[in-house]
Amino acid sequence: MAAKRFPLDHVRNFGIMAHIDGGKTTTSERILFYSGKNYKIGEVHDGAATMDFMVQEQERGITIQSAATCVSWGDYRLSLIDTPGHVDFTAEVERSLRVLDGAVALYCAVGGVQPQSEQVWRQSEKYKVPKIAFVNKMDRVGANFYSVMDQMKTQLGANPVPMVIPIGAAETFEGVVDLIKMKALYYDMKSLGKTVVEKDIPAELVEKAKEYRQKMVESAAEQDDALMEKFFAGEELTNEEIKGAIRKGCIARAITPAFCGSAFKDKGVQQLLDGVCDYLPSPLDTGAAVSADDPNQKREPSDSEPFCGLAFKIMSDKAMGKITFVRVYSGELRLGEELLDSTINQEQRISRLFRMHANKQEPLEVAQAGDIVACVGLTQTRTGDTLCSPDHPITLESIDFPAPVISVAVKPQSRQDNEKLGVALHALAMEDPTFVVTFDQETSETIIAGMGELYLEVIVDRLKREFNVACDVGAPQVAYRETIRKPVESEYKHVKQSGGRGQYAHVCLKLEPQEPGKGFEFVNEVKGGVIPTEYIPAVEKGVRKALESGPLAGFPVVNVKATVYFGSYHEVDSNEFAFITCAMQCFKQGFLKATPQLLEPMMDVEVVVPDQYMGAANGSINQRRGRVEGMEDRAGLKLIKATVPLGEMFGYSNAIRTVTQGRGTFTMIFKQYEAVPKTIAEEVVAKRVKEGKVRPIAD
């Protein structure tokens, strides 16, 4: 299908980002309706929103996956991505912001700048994304546009510049005053807000409108030296000069043009769309795509350049299999073309190419620079991989995803489900880099890890509905380790006679503790051939088998040096199996005499909270046997660095949100293993013995 060509300066790639329940999807639905993409409005509360097409989204009334669509507004083409607001799905926001040129930061007129609003603002600043603001829900009781402007300044460090002001608030909200035209705009409800009626500004708002227009003009003049001179000379700036300067300031992220309305009541969204076209950057404004390896290697946003794009999202589809979303930065992407995935150095061919409209596809023959498209055929490509022309390789900066913070064990309910579980988990892990699957050899459990409890709940629900895999969900075991604290010598004689040829082996071992992190070391000091050379590897093999399941609690043994120094053998009855068995038992008996110790994984934890919640956050760390090791200021927030046992971190995502009213976030990575306090170690050992996880030692 030959798609209509738009000049690059008339292309806008933007996303809508906000706190959960801010009205992102409702606003997206109005954009689809006013642009003519949809002929009726789908409501979130009815489970009929176009952009929330997953069953889980419709049931919960929240966005879980970012959804893309493309609309025309006048002579502009707008590619829109509706992102989730819930913190558990922050990876969807992260990957969207990486490839977008601009964003609409949406705020509730009552709630103002809420916790996740702060989080997504920080994410957008990381990728240097220009933004315009939209204060939604002006029809609700308690709505206050000016209060939200103040909160943006104080909580986000932003510089909002109102381009409109509201006419009324709550039940008296009727429309907006356009500060460029200096006209009042009202919305015809019979046409669901499609028809906009221009009138004179109400008398009671004339002075306020003049005041805010003057502030807008001052902000515009500050962005351009020539306009500043004109402004101070007392000359009037033209509307085109004002819009051009505001756009310049927005692209430089010096100002945030602000709009308001009520998406649900069909007011203000059309002015927001005009603002997207007038102020947000085009692919030309964001400049060249730069190689992550060589800053001098660039791709300009032009069809004539070699092809270069970034795979930013992967989705599983029952009919088509793996769909890869690609942002095209330069050149042309053609159907059937051979591409190089430069991140993994693999060539692949595109079998289908289309533009997405939520979960529907519009087939394409070719995609140009600035496009956001989806393709089928890139079976090896992962999220964050660079795609390019095989003749002109380049690798762009990938996407930085947060590490998963919570995990649970899943167990299929039947053998039939067991076969399907691996395939399903692999497909889901390909979709989302923050979803990690591991198999715990110690507990024989499949552990799935993600960004939060709701996130994992949705994953389990998708396993059941999309992949027909029924699972029981449990709590994971902490991966403890065992070691020793003092050197010992141990001797064991393995003798077994049961008619015919017997078994005989005799081994003496010296066990010594090693420095943390040094692992296992095996030394042979046998002299005089008391143990034949051919049986020494069997002794080492027996010791290594014993390391897999320690005698204290059945966890792996680490940081031990084992030296075989003496033993004996039998001409007839000694064999490799006898020495393996003998070495295992010798090691285990010696281990229990060497003051065994249980070790637990310690995590480097960083907690970011507003200043007023620092005490509560410190208390939550101390309650979890954590050690606070430092504090620092970061972008108006407090960063607490601590070391906390992994076993105490389960459920912490909910705990930190509770004590900080949802404003606290944390990350953690593995640091080292440390000794478990005696009382807790005794509890763990007793539990493992009761569960039958500790193997008995032969006498």
Describe this structure in words.
The protein is α+β, with helices and mostly antiparallel strands. Helix content is 28%, strand content 31%. The chain has 17 helices and 36 strands. The strands form 8 sheets. The chain has an 8-stranded antiparallel sheet. Strands 2-3-1-4-5-11-6 form a 7-stranded mixed sheet, sandwiched between helices. β4 (102-108), α4 and β5 (131-136) form a beta-alpha-beta unit. The longest helix is centred in the last third of the chain and has 18 residues, at 576-593.
Q: Which key terms come to mind for this protein?
A:
28% helix, single chain, 36 strands, alpha+beta, elongated, 7-stranded mixed β-sheet, 699 residues, 17 helices, 8-stranded antiparallel β-sheet, 31% strand
Mind sketching the topology for me?
Layout: E1 11-17, H1 24-34, H2 55-60, E2 67-73, E3 76-82, H3 90-99, E4 102-108, H4 115-126, E5 131-136, H5 145-156, E6 160-162, E7 164-167, E8 175-178, E9 183-187, E10 196-199, H6 206-222, H7 225-232, H8 239-251, E11 256-260, H9 269-279, H10 283-286, E12 289-290, E13 298-299, E14 308-317, E15 321-330, E16 333-334, E17 338-341, E18 346-349, E19 352-357, E20 360-363, E21 366-367, E22 372-376, E23 386-388, E24 406-412, H11 415-431, E25 436-440, E26 445-450, H12 453-465, E27 471-474, E28 481-484, E29 488-496, E30 503-513, E31 520-524, H13 536-548, E32 560-568, H14 576-593, E33 596-609, H15 614-623, E34 627-634, E35 637-645, H16 652-659, E36 665-675, H17 678-690
Parallel strand pairs: 1-3, 1-4, 4-5, 5-11, 6-11, 31-32
Antiparallel strand pairs: 2-3, 7-8, 8-9, 9-10, 12-13, 14-15, 14-23, 15-22, 16-21, 17-18, 17-23, 19-20, 19-22, 24-26, 24-27, 25-26, 28-33, 29-30, 30-32, 33-35, 33-36, 34-35
